[in-house]
Amino acid sequence: MTDAQPRYDDLRALYLNCTLKRSPEVSNTQGLIDVSTAIMNAQGVSVEVIRPVDHDIATGVWPDMTEHGWASDEWPQIFEKVLAADILVLAGPIWLGDNSSITKQVIERLYGGSHLLNDAGQYLYYGRVGGCLITGNEDGVKHCASNILYSLQHIGYTIPPQADAGWIGEAGPGPSYLDPGSGGPENDFTNRNTTFMTWNLLHLARLLKDAGGIPAHGNQRSAWDAGCRFDFPNPDYR
After folding, report:
1. Model-level pTM?
2. Are 14 and 81 in contact (CB under 8 A)?
3. CA separation for the pair 139, 110 (Å, rounded)
4. Is residue 53 helix, strand or coil?
5. Secondary structure of 180-226 in HEC code, one letter for each residue
6. Contact 45, 9 (CB under 8 A)
7. pLDDT tens digits, 134-143
8. Cβ(79)–Cβ(111) under 8 Å?
9. What is the pLDDT of residues 44-57, one digit of tens each?
């Protein structure tokens, strides 16, 4: 048994900031992302943050929408970064109590690759972990987080405990996270949850990477299609 601190410097994390603001406009969501990425960086994790709104991403649920009538689509390049990452964090604002249109678009495009398989015959996102960060000045953090985390686990991501964090100001029009006097960056509840979320992502990503991903028995689409039923009883109701 060893008390050595696990290393995380072989992990890669991708944060998709689903703000509606194009760079270099200030993003309040980026302010909260920075809290999480600072912890990742301190552990030597390779971190990248992308604003999908900065890219020409087509609408649809296929890996490359240029094969389905769109003249251009930059999602395939982002998708390569998604597949290279051990950790994916979807972050975004609340609008009308729900996730932003960009968050929804990203989830749809992630879903478009969910039918693909890895080398073990499992769905492609198996063996990766996911989390989310939410900002806003209106109610909806838990609603937005539940939608994101459900979507990620449904397509194959593993979700650690307490995999979400967020900040909202007072209900109604008011200061956003980075606005002077908002109290956002100093909020202990948000800072605690963001820290816990980040470490839980790191711990679970470490466990999965060391284990070679999720064990393949019982969840291989390729084997099911070939006739294997993994002890499914298939009762005879005649």
Report:
1. 0.94
2. yes
3. 26
4. helix
5. CCCCCCCCHHHHHHHHHHHHHHHHHHHHHHHHCCCCCCCCCHHHHHC
6. yes
7. 999 888 999 9
8. no
9. 999 999 999 999 99
